[in-house]
Write a structure and sequence with these properties.
The complex is a heterodimer of chains A (217) and B (215). Chain A contains six helices and ten strands; from the N terminus they run E-E-E-H-E-E-E-H-H-H-E-H-E-H-E-E. Chain A has 217 residues and is an alpha/beta fold. In chain A, a hairpin with a 2-residue loop joins strand 4 and strand 5. Chain B has eight helices and no strands. Chain B starts with 5 loop residues before the first helix and ends with a helix. Classes of the chains: A alpha/beta (217), B mainly alpha (215). At the A-B interface, helix 2 and helix 3 of A face helix 5, helix 6 and helix 7 of B.
């Protein structure tokens, strides 16, 4: 099976503190993997490196066998990468739900009506069409996460990078997100603390511990 | 309660404020103010509370003016200041702030201006939420405000905390711009509809201009 993501011997440090060293990871087409690890182990930084938001100290990242030498190189794969940050408040660019979900399509030059139809379809798919005209910042944490997912999924990305998607959510909201993510057939890297959540979603789990990545199942 | 559109409110706020700033008080000029207060009649006392609170500062200006000029002049300026403040508070009392962004977009302001104002408001909201959390934390941890060195150190730390937080938020926003293909504009759906109530407001503003410059 062809690989969507190849990470080779990547190292990263913050303020001379080594977070991880020599990490190699391959994610195949439609494969779902999870990364667990203690606080401050560098899970989120690793995800940001794969998303092309920060540069590793050493090592190489390949997306669809294309080497990403500089952060600029990620530009052509932007719509293929769906990155959900830990704090979704940082993710939103528009005041209402429908406007934010439409944003990526409109930024690509798609006409308003067409973008609206597609955005509404995805809201319906995720069963949040009743939130259409709500102000994002008035929504609950769980609702915000699902809206952010809708904003990501609308561009039909090939890779999903999810940083703590169920962080601070109640059981019901977590269940909903699990169902949504289980129904998506895409390459996925999920970073989370929730063991039950991870196990219900990703067949392959890695642990980031003592600067290195080890497979735990 | 009557809801006025943000676009009409924004236009009315600008024209009324400019007009009152450069005119002497006349009874007719109270008409638009009375109208917006009527539209917000359920929140009348809350609006009044805010105006009274702001009057602490306005009274200071009044006293200074009284000492420098005549009572008539000081009273005139005092009334005009209150009219402008009350009018604007009543107009935007129920606004979340984002309505103004929508109004600017509706009035065909440059897209970069609209998005800059939107992100400024977003940042203000984030920081004010942060400030609220900090205040609650201080309460919960038994902090008492006094003039001790410890209290000043705590304030300094909190200021630093908010400063760092705002830088981090700005960095996160920049990353989102990169991720989501932002290129200088946000896309808003035009949902603002002008109602008869908006037209009445615009009519009243026009009326005071006609009274001043034509009649």
């Amino acid at each position: 099976m062809s690989c969507s993501i190849n990470v080779k011997n990547v190292s990263y440090e913050i303020n001379e503190r080594v977070l991880f060293q020599d990490i190699t990871l391959n994610v195949s087409h439609e494969e779902k993997i999870a990364i667990v690890g203690s606080n401050g182990s560098g899970k989120s930084s690793f995800l940001k490196i794969v998303a092309g938001l920060i540069k590793p100290k050493e090592g190489e990242v390949f997306l669809f066998h294309d080497r990403m030498e500089k952060l600029k190189d990620f530009k052509k794969y932007r719509s293929d990468i769906g990155y959900l940050p830990q704090d979704v408040n940082d993710f939103f660019l528009c005041p209402t739900v429908i406007e934010d979900v439409m944003f990526n399509l409109r930024a690509k030059g798609i006409k308003k009506d067409e973008a609206y139809t597609k955005a509404f379809e995805i809201l319906k798919e995720l069963e949040i069409e009743h939130l259409e005209n709500r102000t994002i910042y008035d929504l609950s944490g769980g609702e915000q996460k699902i809206v952010a997912l809708a904003s990501i999924l609308i561009t039909k990305p090939k890779i999903l990078l999810l940083d703590e998607p169920t962080n601070a959510l109640d059981e019901e909201a977590e269940k909903k997100i699990v169902n949504i993510l289980n129904s998506i057939k895409k390459s996925m890297i999920i970073v989370s603390h929730h063991k039950s959540f991870i196990e219900s979603l990703a067949p392959t789990i890695y642990r980031l511990k003592e600067n290195s990545l080890e497979k735990i199942n | 309660m009557i809801t006025l559109s943000p676009t009409a409110s924004f236009v009315a706020a600008i024209f009324y404020s400019i007009f009152i700033s450069f005119s002497n008080v006349e009874v007719l000029y109270f008409l638009p103010l009375a109208y917006v207060l009527f539209c917000e009649y359920k929140n009348f006392f809350q609006i009044l509370k805010r105006v009274v609170l702001l009057n602490i500062f306005i009274v200071m200006i009044f006293i200074v003016l009284l000492l420098q000029t005549s009572l008539d002049e000081a009273l005139n300026i005092y009334l005009r200041t209150n009219m402008i403040i009350a009018f604007n508070i009543a107009l935007f009392f129920r606004s979340s702030g984002y309505d103004i962004v929508r109004a600017l977009n509706d009035l065909r302001f440059p897209k970069r201006v609209v998005s800059s104002i939107y992100f400024t408001l977003k940042m203000i909201q984030v920081l004010s939420d942060e400030l609220k959390t900090i205040r609650q934390t201080l309460k919960a941890r038994g902090f008492k405000a006094n003039s001790s060195l410890f209290a000043y150190e705590t304030y300094g730390n909190l200021f630093g905390h908010i400063f760092v937080k705002s830088i981090r938020k700005a960095q996160a926003l920049e990353q989102t711009f990169n991720l989501r293909g932002f290129h200088g504009r946000i896309y808003l759906i035009n949902t603002i509809k002008i109602s008869y109530y908006d037209l009445i407001l615009i009519f009243l503003i026009t009326l005071i201009y006609i009274k001043r410059f034509i009649v």
